[in-house]
Amino acid sequence: AEIPFGEKDQLGDFTLRHGDWIKFVVATDRRDKLKRATKIELLDESFKVSDERREQGVVQSMKEGFGFIKCVDRADLMFFHFSECLDVSRKLAVTDEVEFTVAADPTQMGRQLAT
Hints:
Elements lengths: L21 E7 L6 E8 L2 H5 L5 E8 L3 E6 L5 E5 L15 E4 L1 E3 L7 E3 L1
Parallel strand pairs: 5-8
Antiparallel strand pairs: 1-2, 3-4, 3-6, 4-5, 7-8
């Protein structure tokens, strides 16, 4: 069965992909009685069953809303935006160990970022 949802129904700012494992709550709108998925969380199992490669690193520096990760397997620092953090309740700090996926930056050709 399919159930509708919107971007505001996700806990965190992540891109859902076909085959992702998620957890959510089914809510019924009081006005039109339609059901929708809300409080959507991406589960760690998604990364175990997909071909998505996770990398590790340590938060090197943070600014207002973004930061840089020192990667284990790369010489470059990797840019990340706080909205990409899957655990919305976690407060990141410099020296925290993190896992991430590398993706192309949609705003700058040839640049990569951590998601």
